[in-house]
Amino acid sequence: MPIAGVLILTQPELSDNALVKLNKMNKVTTYGIHKENYIIAVLEGNSISELETITNSITSKIPGVIGVYPSYVNYEEIETQESTE
Amino acid sequence: MNKKQTRREFIKVTAAASTAAGIGVTLFPGMTFADQKSGTNWHKSVCRYCGVGCGVMIGEKGGKIVKVKGDAQNTINKGHLCVKAFYLPKAVNAKTRLHHPMIRKNGKLVKASWDEAMKLVATKFNDIRKNHGGNALAFYGSGQAETEETYMANKLFKGCIGTNNVEGNPRLCMASAVGGYLTSLGADEPAGTYEDIEKTELFFLAGSNTAEAHPIVFERIMRHKAMNPNVKIIILDPRKTPTDQVADLHLFPKPGYDLAVFNAMAHILIKEGFADDAFIKNHLFFKDNKKNKHSFEEYKKFLEDYTPEIAEEISGVPAKDIVKAARMFGKAKTAMSMWTMGLNQRKRGVWANNLVHNLHLITGKIGVPGSDSFSLTGQPNACGGVREGGGLCHLLPGHHLVVKEAHREKVAKVWGVPASNIQPKPGKHTIAMFSALNAGEIKGMYIMCTNPAQSLPNAKKYWKGLKEQFIVVAESFFPTMTTEYADVVLPASFWTEKEGVYGCTERRSQYMPQITDPQGEAKWDAFILRDLGKEMGFEREFAKYETAEIMWDEYRGLTKGKDMNLMGASYNRLKKVRGLVWPVPTENHPGTYKRFTDGDPIYDALPAEKKKGRRMYFYGPKAKDGRATVWMRPHDGPGEPTSAEYPFALTTGRILEQWHTMTMTGTSPQLNRSVPHAYVEINPADARSKGITNKDQVIIETRRGEMQFEARVIDRPIPGTIFVPWHWPDKPINVLCSDIFDPGSKEPEYKVAAARIRKV
Q1: Alpha carbon of B601 to those of B563, B586, B616: distances in Å?
Q2: Count of CA atoms in the C-beta half-sphere (13 A) of B24
Q3: Which of B344, B375, B406 is the last residue of a domain?
Q4: Which residue of A35, A59, A69 is the best one to mutate when testing the B interface, meaning the one whose CB has the most B CBs within 10 A?
C-alpha cells in the first residue's frame, strides 16, 4: 500500500477553504498550511493508481488548488515487512 | 495502537516530514524517523520522464527500489515532483519489461540468446552494407537515451559503418527550437536558465500547456506569482488548459495562425516606445527570408503589414488583446517566454521560434536576470544526448557538423577512424529516413529507446517500411507498436539499472548512478551498440569502452573550446553536485547562468574591443559580428488548412497523467487509471451543431484515415478546433496527423491537421 507525502499548492486566498475540504477526504491526512500557500498532506492508497486518482480528485474538485506535487513516495509492501521485523 | 498501525503511522509521519523539509519546514522537531533506521540506501539521480530535469532521491533496499523522494538539494525542483513520480519504480518493475532477446522466426518473435541475436544483426547489417552501401542502414534514437548511448550509436553508424543516417525522436519535437536558436541567437539552447523564473515580472507561455507537460516549471511559476502579485502571465494557445487557471490574459489563435500575432506584438512594442534602441543598435541585425540585411527602419516598415487589426483577421485573436499583450510585455521590466510543441511542431516552427526571440531582442529583454526566450524540452535528454551529443543526421558530437571538414577530422581522430569514413553530407532526416525505408532504399534500421510506429506523424504510412525491411529494436519494454514490426528485439537496461548523463532544458548535465542490476538478461544500450560494433568487425574501434565514464570522458573532450564546453563536468564532479550548466570549462568553474554576457567564461575571455558598448556578444557558430538576428518572417498558415470538406483543426498534445507512447506510464492496470482511455475534446458550440453530447462515440476523419473516440464536450478548445491526447496505443491519433514538415527544421506539423467529426 503506497504512501505519498505531497505538497498542495493553492491560491493563497483559498488555502484555508482548501484545507477544510481536504480534511473531509478519505485517505488524505493534512499537516497544515505552510509558506502561505502550501498544504502538506499524506495520501494513502491501495495502489499507485489510487494515489493518482486521489491526486486528480484534489486537483479537479477542490477550488483554489493549483497543483499537487509529490515529495516522498514509499512503495514498500508494508504488511510483508512488518511480519519480518 | 498495534504494531501494524505503528509502522504505517511511522511511514506517514516520515512522508509528511520529508515533504515539509522540501519547503524548509520542520514538522516534528527532534523526532527520529523510521526512514533513518530502515536500512534504505538513498541515491541521487534524475527523473526519467520529461525534460525539466528534476532531481530525485531513490531509496533502495535489498536490491529493490522501495522509495522515491524529490531531491531537496536539486536547484530545479527543490524536492518537489509531479504525479508521474508515482510511477517511477512501477515502470522499473513493470510486467512489460523485456528480459531476453527475441528473434522473429516464422512470423513470430521467439526467445533467443544474446549470441544468436547479435550474430544475426551483425551479419545482416554487414550484408546490407556490403551489397548496398552504408547508406542502406540507419539508426533512429531517442531524447530519452543517455548521452553515452547516443555517443556509441554515432560512432558506430557515422564513424564506422559510414552513414549519416542517424536521427532521433527530438527531430519530432525540438528541431524547430534548435533552428530558432541557431538562426536568431547564433547558437543552440537558451541564453538563460530556470533561475530566471523567480526574477521575472512577466511570463509569456506560447503553445505550452506548462501545468500538465512541465508541472514543476509551472509550480515554480505559480509560487513566484503567489509571492509577487505584480507578476503577470500571458498565454497563447488555441486551447484552454489547466495552465489557464492563473492566466492574466489568454490569446486564442486559430491553430497555425499565430505568426501574425507575434509580428503585431512587435509592431505595438516599437510603436509605443518599448524598443531598446541602444540594444538594437549594438547587438542586432535585421534580415528577411532571403537573408538580406535590412535596417531597423525597414523592419518597422515590414511590421506595418501586421497591425493588430490585420493580425486579428488572420489569427482570430482580438486586436485589443494583442495590444494588451504587447503592452504587458513592454511595460514589464523583465519577461520570460516559454514554449513547447505548439510552436515547434509546425510547418513554420522555426519562424514561430524566431518571432518569439524577436520580442526579446527588440526590447532588450534577454541577457539580464529575469529575461529570456526559453524553450522547454519534452524529453529528459533531448538537449544533452541528441542536440549536444550530435544524434541528428547533420551533427557530430559536441556541436560539430558533418559538413565541416575540420570537424570530421577532429571527431574521426578521437574515434580512431579514418576521417573519410564520416560522410561530408548530412544523412536523411527522420521523415526522409522512414520514407526511404518504405521505398527500400534503407534496408536495415536500428531503433533505440523509442516507438516510431506510434509516434511518427501519419504513422500508418510508415508501417510499410517497418514491416518490409530488417528492423532491430533495442527496448526496455515489450510489446510496443514498433516491436510488432521488429525482426530482432534486444532487452535494454532501464533507468536505475545503468549509469550515465542526462542534459536538461537549461543546459544542465546531471549524473545518474546505477542502483540495481539489470532485469533478466537486459544490457545497457551503450554496451549493446559497442558489442554490435565489435561483432560487425570494428573490434579495435570499440575495444576501449569498458565503462560509461570512458565514453563520457571521450565525449566531453570533444566539447573543449566549444560553446557547450563540458570539460569541467567530470563524472567525479557530477556525482557530487546537482548538475552543471555549460559552458563549464574547468573542474573549478561553477557553470554558467547567462550565456553571451558577463559571467559567461567565453564572453569574459573576449577581447575588450569586441565587447565595447555591448552587454551581450552572440559568439555562437551561426552569429556574425557578435550580433543576434531579428527575422522579418511573414504570415504563413498551416500546411493543411481547414476547408469545407474538413472544417475542423485537429490538434494533439499531452495530459499530465501519461507520457509519450505510454511504454512507461501505461504499465499500471488500465482500468484503475484516472484517465483510462483516449478521448476527443470538442467545444460545446461545435458539439451542438454536430448533435454530439458528452461521452458520445464520434468518428474523427482526416485525409489519412478515421478513428473512433469518446467525445468530451468541454469549453477548452476554441470553436473549430478539436483536441486529442496522443498517448494511447489503441488509439494512435498520430495516424491521422499530417507529416508535412518545416522546410528548415524538418519537424512535422503535428499540431494542425484538417479534420471532420461526426457522431457514430
Answers
A1: 10, 10, 13
A2: 3
A3: B375
A4: A69
Q: What is the CATH number of domain A3-84?
A: 3.30.70.920
CA pair distance B194, B425, nearest whole angstrom:
36
Q: For the domain that residue B61 is a member of, what is the CATH number?
A: 2.20.25.90
pLDDT tens-digit map of B547-559: 999 999 999 999 9
Total tally of structural domains belonging to chain B: 4
> pLDDT tens digits, residue range B15-39?
998 899 888 888 887 765 555 557 8
Q: B210 and B250 share a domain?
A: yes
pLDDT digits (tens, 9 = 90+) for B368-417: 999 999 999 989 999 999 999 999 999 999 999 999 999 999 999 999 99
Burial B185-197 (b: 16+ CB within 10 A, else e): bbbbbbbbbbbbb
Burial of A83 (0-12, 13-18, 19+ CB in 10 A): exposed
Question: Which of A41, A48, A78 has its CB closest to that of B86?
Answer: A48
Contacts of B88 in chain A (CB under 8 A): 73
Candidates B480, B656, B670; CA nearest to A47 is B670
| Contact criterion met (CB < 8 Å) for A67 and B218 | yes
Last residue of a domain, one of B92, B112, B141: B92
Angle between helices B430-439 and B459-468 (to 10 degrees): 50
Residue pairs spanning A and B at CB distance below 8 A: 152
What is the residue range of B158's domain? Answer: 102-172+392-495+520-549
Alpha-carbon gap: A46 to the closest alpha carbon of chain B (Å): 11
Contact (Cβ atoms closer than 8 angstroms) between residue B626 and residue B279: no
ipTM above 0.90, yes or no: yes
B224 within some domain: yes
CATH number at residue B652: 2.40.40.20
Q: Is A75 on the interface with B (CB under 8 A)?
A: yes
Q: Which three cell numbers stand for residue B325?
A: 499583450
For B313, other C-beta atoms within 10 Å of its C-beta total: 13
